[in-house]
Amino acid sequence: MSKIRFKNTKAGGFFAKRGFYIALAVCLVAIGGAAWTAMNTIGKAPDPIDFPSDTFIDYESYVEDGTAEVDNPVSDIPAEPESREESSQPESKTAHMPNESERYTPPEDKEPVKAFYVVPVSGNVTKIFNDSELQYSATYDDWRLHEGIDIEAAKGSMVVSVAEGVVTDIFNDPLMGNTVVIEHGGGITAYYSGLDDNIRVAKGGTVDASTEVGSIGIVPCEALDEPHLHFAMKKGDDWVSPLEVMGMLNTD
């Protein structure tokens, strides 16, 4: 049996060489085509994208109103928690306790300044104050208490205020006649009774020592006595001796 052998003839070598070059050319063409495609794509603007009409926003409306209408607003958004308020409770502080030198000490009571008194009218004291022993009354022909002093003076004699004060009342009393009431301070109130109608002061007015009050008139309940001023004083609600208050009581 004869053996079959493949010999490398010249024709076979030629086609073998040609096939190699053809394959190489095809590769170069493919590479060139890919490169051209890439270069043609770079720098070319993309085609515009068409948005659906429901996403369009009117710019002019947005600028004027400051808001944009949205077809499907989002709901059920939880509210943003409010910031915590600062505590209104003041910081605790320790109270300052004053020491002995800082504690308030009320001023000591000073002795009241004694009022300066003048006599209400010049004359003799014909009856003194007595709220415990009876004195004879010529007008009533009996014995009774005398809660004031009688200073004898002619009718029309001027009567003055014994100290500074305020006129609190002026009235006509059936028993004591025209009467002026003056508060002289220190709880002392003076009653000037038996004046005529020529009263020189007014209710609510102020007086000084020696201010003219009125003139001697008549005391109805002591009409049979010589003309005089019936002068009485109260300290608080109690009748007191005018001579003792004014420091004119003669103890000799």
**Over all CA atoms, what is the radius of gyration?**
65 Å
Note poorly predicted spans: 1-11, 48-78
Structural class: alpha+beta
Taken in chain order, the helices and strands follow as HHEEEEEEEEEEEEH
Strand content: 25-35%
Distance between the termini: 200 Å
Query: What is the CATH homology-level superfamily of the domain at 125-245?
Result: Glucose Permease (Domain IIA)
Annotation, overall tally of beta strands: 12
Helix content estimate: 10-25%
Main beta-sheet strand count, sense and barrel state: 8 strands, antiparallel
Shape: rod-shaped
What is the CATH topology descriptor of the domain at 125-245? Glucose Permease (Domain IIA)
Question: On the 0-100 scale, what is the average pLDDT?
Answer: 75
> From the 3D coordinates, which CATH architecture of the domain at 125-245 would you assign?
Distorted Sandwich
At the first level of CATH, what is the class of the domain at 125-245? Mainly Beta
Q: Helical element count? A: 3
Give a short summary of the structure:
The chain is of the alpha+beta class.
